[in-house]
Amino acid sequence: WFAEKAIDSNRGLQQNTACASTLNQTNPWWRLDLRHIYRVSRVVVTNRKDCCTEQMNGAEIRIGNSLESNGNNNPIYSCGGMDGRYVNLIIPEDMKILTLCELEVYGEGNLALGGTAVQSSTYSDLAAAQNAVDGNRESVYALGSCSVTNGDMNPWWRVDLSDVYRVTRVSITNRGDCCEKRIEGIQIRIGNSLENNGNNNELAATVGPIPLGNTKTFEFKHVKGRYVNLIVPGRKEYLTLCEVEVYSGER
Question: TM spans, by residue (predicted)?
Answer without folding.
Answer: none
